[in-house]
Amino acid sequence: MDIEQEKMQFLGFSGVYKESYKLMFSWRKIFTQITFTLILPLSFIFLTHIQVSDVLFGKIEHDRENLNDTPLGTPQHQKLLDVTSSDWATFFLFKLLYFIFLLIFSLLSTSAVVYTVASFYTAKEVTFKQVISVIPKVWKRLMVTFLCTVVAFFVYNVMAVLVVGIWALSIGVKSGGVTIFVVTGILFILYLVGLVYLTVVWQLANVVTVLEDSYGYGAMMKSRELIKGKMGLSVIIVLMLHGSFFLIQLLFSMVVVNGWKLFSLGSMERTAWGIVCFLLLSHLFLLMLVFQTVLYFVCKSYHHQIVDKSALSDHLEVYECYQPLKTKDVQLDCHV
């Protein structure tokens, strides 16, 4: 890398941004191949899901309105009831298929990009074929980490609901309108803070899963330790990237999905905007994965856990029987 590992700990957001783009431009051929093979399908799946969901839900709403206007007990009412049930079944089946394909391409993209960034770090040339060959050995570990993260988010949301419920039942009913508003605002802010923290831990845990011997809750615990001292940088990166993701999604929903209603856009204009959103989202997905991998090395440098390039290179060279890095391979003596 252009920046020595020992100096990476001093990188801020702009430094991580520049280093990520240097990396992508230096190895633009292999990143282009990864983008065309994995990230473009991922973006297509996500945006198509928004469009198709809108169409399916619109049909459900239309059939429900007709059902409400039809007298009970008539053959027409029963027919509309069956159609509505079929619409909901189609809707949920589509959601299930969407989630499966989104998860598959997300895990594959993460494996490929993290592995490629690690290869770049060792200054060792790799081919796209080598990167793809690693994916089958890594995605199962990423799946375990993902499932553990889902459990963590679920428990966190359950705890949040319990806290709000207990407060509402014990204190909230006795409080005035202003107090309820203020306390609700504080609880919501605290909830968002926890949500951002879990997101930071999850994203760095994905990198730990690919490059070290930990996965699942173990990777999450290591990620939690790594971000200590770099929490501010980690939060800024998450907020910036996810904020951009939200804006692209909002743009697609308003201009492409509902552009004919909101802005009277024709099909050609909506298609053009759809292509723009597709390209922006694909670039953002790639940038997210590169960012979180560079952040991993920044956090390692901050804790003086300098990655042994030779050990990392040895592991990457035997990609056909890929083994994750052991803890002893990614730490040298501390430099104080």
Question: Can you give me a brief rundown of this structure?
Answer:
The protein has 336 residues and is mainly α.
Q: Could you explain how this protein is built, in words?
A:
With 336 residues, this protein is mostly helical. The C terminus is likely disordered. The chain is globular. The protein has 11 helices and no strands.
User: How many H/I helices?
Assistant: 11
Query: Percent helix among the residues?
Result: over 70%
Number of DSSP strand runs: 0
Average pLDDT taken over every residue: 84
Low-confidence stretches: 327-336
Rough outline: globular
Task: Map the helices and strands.
Blueprint: H1 5-8, H2 13-26, H3 28-69, H4 75-121, H5 128-170, H6 177-211, H7 217-226, H8 231-257, H9 259-262, H10 267-302, H11 309-317
Distinctive features:
336 residues; disordered C terminus; mainly alpha
